[in-house]
Amino acid sequence: MSISLYFNEIKAIADKYTETDFVLGSVLHFDIRPGNQGYLKGEITFADKSVLFVKEFLDYYKKINKVMYCYHYQNNINELIFRYDNAQHKPPLKTIDHKHLPNNIVIEATEPDFQDIIIEICTIQDFIHKV
What we know:
This protein has two helices and seven strands. β1 and β2 form a beta hairpin. By secondary structure, it is of the alpha+beta class. The protein has one domain.
């Protein structure tokens, strides 16, 4: 899958949820860069005023590689609910992919995809019955 096809897939997922009553709106910026690279940045605002901030820096060689990603989800008063990312930590974690939770808790995680993040938010906020 090319960068442009990947971006089309992300847009289709965001558009699908934006049509529901539990998403107020989404703003996503897609930047296709030279060298088979891409950058995605944006946010999705939910009916309860919680927000998902999304960042992905992608490289394509036979498959999409998320060189950098961050899915930061916070409530309406800017408190962290969760954040998945692959940023390096000091001291180092056992895995590069991890999930931040409230109270400075960091756990190992696998690299999520955009659809999985939206489903997790829907489950946490009890939006899932509306999908």
